Amino acid sequence: MRLHVERPYPLHSARIEFNTLPPPPFPPTAARMEFGSDNPNAAMDAEARDADSEPDLEPPHSPETPRTRSSISRKIPRPHGEPGRPNSGGFNLAIELAKTGWSRKSVEQLAETVHAVAQERLDLTKCYRKQDKRDVKKICDEMIKDKNWPKLKDYEGCWPVLCILKSKLKNGAAAARRNELRDTQARLQAVMNRRGMSPNHEQ
To answer: Engineered SS bond to 201: which of 37, 126, 139, 197, CB 3.0-4.6 Å?
Structure first.
């Protein structure tokens, strides 16, 4: 056993004395050291804090979790382009509705119903942009509430009805312009006839 020798004091005489000291305690071998506390409730408080700091068994669901995504109802979006122009970047309404379970007969019946309502509520000589948007919205709301067309509520912005309205109003406005042009030409021809003139009359 190794002995520890106490360092002697500076020499004042020829006599030297050495005293042996007990060996120091062994160093701690564990990284965790415990210290006593004067508070008898300290250990209980520490255990309570450890219990409160346990992680949750199930993490909170973020907006990207499948649970949240499944709870959000998604409506069918409108296809890109204009209806009735499939060869010019648009789409065919009957084909698009067939993708979501509509038959051709159902699409035709829907178009007939929308045409009848538009005949009563809108001015068919004006295009869609010149219509009162409040009247258009009322038509869409009534069609959605109609029990004959329960599927319309699944479409974003009721776009099937809007597409039918736009096509109907576009054709109506074009027909009105053609009629107006014919009337103008007829009046002009009547004036020229009264004056004994013809379109090819030379002065």
So the answer is: 197
